[in-house]
Amino acid sequence: MFGRLFANVSRKAPSLLSRVLPTMKPQVVFVLGGPGAGKGTQCSRIVESYNYTHLSAGDLLRAERAREGSEVGQLIANYIKDGKIVPVEITISLLGKAMEETMQEDEKKCSFLIDGFPRNEDNLEGWNRVMDGKADVKFVLFFDCNNDTCINRCLERGRSSGRTDDNRESLEKRIQTYQQSTRPIIDLYEKHGKVRTVDASRSVEEVFADVKAILDKEG
């Protein structure tokens, strides 16, 4: 059953992305960091000050999980609960649909913050395969934060967020997955000079000051 679902999603992803307006390629900044590093908070600040659209891979997956009639909702739920990375076919399909819809509404809105993606080598290979020639990755915005701070922030957030993965057991699994799977992706981009690192253990205001300096320099 799941094999058929993957096949359906795989077919949809390229067709969705091929319809994105060809006159303007999406200009993408990958936003990476551990759970609780403040990626969502900082992306919200960036959207307020710059002409970026924020796409959270996690939020898109959670919305699809909750959507009535979703073919892959339960599968997504199982992966999130276990702290595992959702198959790339699903994530790219959702990202592609969101970028397409944004650019169809306003063709000038072609700058995207993609938050929480790519999370592993499979994600990166899938992105390169599907998005080759269709989008430009400007750089990776890396929010560097120690594990203890990340866990404490998520536990605090979990008291009001209602997120099922904001508990200690899931968080420890997520951080382990991040260290094993996502950090190597950041290191890979670092070798190509495409990582901009921010110390995310500080206050929201201090972190955003550094983010602004990076975005102003990058243009």
Explain the overall architecture.
This protein is of the alpha/beta class and 219 residues long. 59% of the residues lie in helices and 14% in strands. The chain has helices at 2-18, 39-49, 57-66, 73-81, 88-105, 121-131, 147-161, 168-191, 204-218; strands spanning 27-33, 53-56, 111-115, 136-144, 195-199. Strands 2-3-1-4-5 form a five-stranded parallel sheet, with helices on both faces. It is globular, with a radius of gyration of 17 Å. 37% of the residues are buried.
Number of helical stretches of at least 4 residues: 9
Record field, number of beta strands: 5
Radius of gyration: 17 Å
Beta-strand content estimate: 5-15%
Largest sheet: 5 strands, parallel
Structural class comes to alpha/beta
Shape: globular
Q: What spatial order of strands do you see in the largest sheet?
A: 2-3-1-4-5
Average residue pLDDT: 87
Helix content: 55-70%
Low-confidence stretches: none
Report a brief summary of the structure.
The protein is of the alpha/beta class. Helix content is 59%, strand content 14%.
Keywords:
five-stranded parallel β-sheet, alpha/beta, 219 residues
Topology summary:
Layout: H1 2-18, E1 27-33, H2 39-49, E2 53-56, H3 57-66, H4 73-81, H5 88-105, E3 111-115, H6 121-131, E4 136-144, H7 147-161, H8 168-191, E5 195-199, H9 204-218
Parallel strand pairs: 1-3, 1-4, 2-3, 4-5
